[in-house]
Amino acid sequence: MGDFDTFTALLDYPVYVVTAPGPPPAGCLVGFAGQCSIEPARFVVWISKANHTYDAALAADALGVHLLPYGHGLAALFGGRSGDDTDKFAAVEWYHGPYGVPVLAEAPAWFVGRVLDCADWGDHTGLLLAPVAVTAPPVGAAPVLSYRDVAGITAGHPA
């Protein structure tokens, strides 16, 4: 579908690390996510079915959604390595947030959302989240990593 690929190549939007409590804790880089309701506040994250984090996310009562600072440290770890063979959380500072969800200390902004629903559409499953805890600096204070910034990272999970 070449024309659609040309269209989507023009897009640039934030990327996120989504974390699930486990055990063991799991997390992955997510490019498909966004706010989907203002009132009530709702956000959806789409997790690849091929991703190690997929089963942990589906089993979780809540997930963490982290915006990333510039630089590829967290993005390369959570997007370029698979939890099948790497303990990603051993390499970063993190703590237990609400619902036991792992919160990445380096993330400039994050929220934990309770999982309300999921939708199986294609090669990803969407999880609808209701925010229960949010940490964010003032608007514009912390530039965040975008999709174009991580274009060179090869996915750590199988295709």
Automatic annotation (TrEMBL):
Chain ranges of the Flavin reductase like domain: 8-153
Highest taxon listed in the record's lineage: Bacteria
InterPro entries: Flavin_Rdtase-like_dom, NADH-dep_flavin_reductase, Split_barrel_FMN-bd
Keyword Oxidoreductase belongs to the record: yes
Keywords from the UniProt entry: Oxidoreductase
Pfam family, one: Flavin_Reduct
Alphabetical list of Gene3D superfamilies matching this protein: Electron Transport, Fmn-binding Protein, Chain A
Protein name in the entry: Flavin reductase family protein
Originating organism: Kitasatospora putterlickiae
